[in-house]
């Protein structure tokens, strides 16, 4: 009498490719690169008229790299909704419209293999939102009126500068704009040497963002460390200052001037972004911290976190489900083979 090993003849689909988690850093970088390759510099897109991107229902403002991801889409009103919110309002998404990704940090608990202690680590996740112009059937009562700015932009600029906490001394001694990190002061050419007052304030905002990294303020390593010209940290600090200045200009309502050598500028950042997928997310985060400091925002606004239903399906959950289904299928096949084997033995 012979018996058959129930594990024999079990086949596995060796061509099946394991699913991998979406690389959120790469997704964000690809979106920014896509804009740059079209000649659009996301952090130079003003949102003074359309408003800072925010959620229509919660009124929470999107922050960090989300500001540039959404404002570069150039909607007339930067009001956004999740798919679930659209449905709850009785609306729907227009045909062929696609969601726009935004990211947020989710803190997860993980055991340190060396210390065996539970540590909290940030995980970058994403979900999608739709601009109100991509939707239909949204009640008129929920749509915000188009607001007209009444404030004088130049007065707003002065207010920002005056109210910056622990502001460095601003001198007008040399015909060059720069921040001296050792002596902690900003030098600016005199206002009359600029083509207009908006250009003066734009340049001053750039240097004030640099100054926010001083050890007596945010203690940003890109400022406090010795970073050679052209190094990665130097490049991050420059992008931080450019993003921060653009944010402050839109906050005050002054225009963001177009660059004369735009093609070379874009190519420079394209090269950097293609080398480091975390570059844009990190620089955006530093710029947000800098502008929060300069605008004296004491309490950090809560990052907009979606309900689990709004999230893209977790690959971990999908893989778990796939593995469970696979095990159940294998067990079923084993049971079937066992039954066939018993019948053969009885015969």
Describe, in plain words, how this protein is organized in 3D.
The structure is a single chain. The protein is an alpha/beta fold. It has a domain at 149-298. Helices cover 40% and strands 13% of the residues. It has 10 helices and 9 strands. The protein has helices at 24-37, 65-71, 83-88, 153-163, 197-211, 221-224, 232-252, 262-275, 279-294, 315-346; strands at residues 54-55, 79-81, 92-93, 100-111, 118-131, 135-136, 169-171, 178-180, 185-187. The strands form 3 sheets. It has a 4-stranded mixed sheet with strand order 1-2-5-4. A hairpin with a 6-residue loop joins strand 4 (100-111) and strand 5. Helix 1 packs antiparallel against helix 8. The radius of gyration is 27 Å and the shape is globular.
Q: Can you lay out the helices and strands and say which pair or pack?
A:
Blueprint: H1 24-37, E1 54-55, H2 65-71, E2 79-81, H3 83-88, E3 92-93, E4 100-111, E5 118-131, E6 135-136, H4 153-163, E7 169-171, E8 178-180, E9 185-187, H5 197-211, H6 221-224, H7 232-252, H8 262-275, H9 279-294, H10 315-346
Parallel strand pairs: 1-2, 7-9
Antiparallel strand pairs: 2-5, 3-6, 4-5, 8-9
Helix pairs in contact: 1-8, 4-7, 5-7, 7-9
């Amino acid at each position: 009498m012979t018996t058959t090993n129930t594990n024999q003849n079990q086949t596995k689909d060796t061509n099946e490719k394991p699913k991998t988690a979406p690389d959120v850093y790469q997704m964000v970088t690809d979106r920014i690169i896509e804009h740059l390759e079209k000649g659009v510099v996301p952090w130079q897109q003003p949102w003074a008229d359309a408003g800072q991107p925010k959620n229509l229902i919660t009124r929470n403002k999107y922050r960090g790299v989300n500001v540039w991801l959404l404002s570069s889409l150039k909607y007339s009103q930067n009001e956004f909704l999740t798919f679930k919110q659209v449905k709850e309002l009785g609306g729907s998404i227009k045909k062929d419209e696609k969601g726009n990704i935004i990211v947020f940090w989710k803190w997860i608990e993980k055991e340190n293999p060396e210390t065996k202690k539970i540590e909290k680590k940030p995980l970058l996740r994403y979900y999608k939102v739709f601009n109100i112009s991509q939707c239909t059937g949204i009640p008129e009562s929920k749509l915000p009126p188009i607001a007209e700015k009444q404030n004088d932009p130049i007065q707003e600029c002065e207010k920002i500068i005056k109210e910056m906490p622990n502001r460095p001394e601003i001198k007008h001694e040399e015909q060059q704009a720069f921040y001296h990190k050792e002596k902690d002061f900003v030098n600016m050419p005199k206002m009359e040497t600029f083509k207009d007052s908006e250009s003066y304030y734009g340049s001053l905002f750039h240097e004030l963002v640099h100054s926010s990294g001083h050890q007596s303020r945010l203690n940003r390593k890109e400022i406090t460390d010795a970073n050679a010209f052209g190094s990665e940290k130097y490049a991050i600090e420059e992008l931080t200052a450019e993003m921060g200045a653009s944010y402050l200009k839109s906050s005050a309502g002054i225009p963001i001037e177009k660059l004369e050598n735009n093609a070379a500028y874009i190519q420079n950042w394209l090269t950097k972004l293609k080398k480091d997928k975390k570059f844009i997310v990190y620089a955006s985060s530093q710029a947000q911290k800098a502008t929060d400091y300069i605008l004296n925002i004491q309490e950090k606004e809560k990052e907009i976190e979606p309900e689990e239903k709004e999230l893209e399906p977790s690959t971990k959950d999908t893989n778990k489900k796939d593995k469970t289904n696979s095990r159940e299928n294998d067990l079923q096949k084993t049971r079937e083979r066992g039954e066939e084997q018993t019948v053969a033995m009885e015969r």
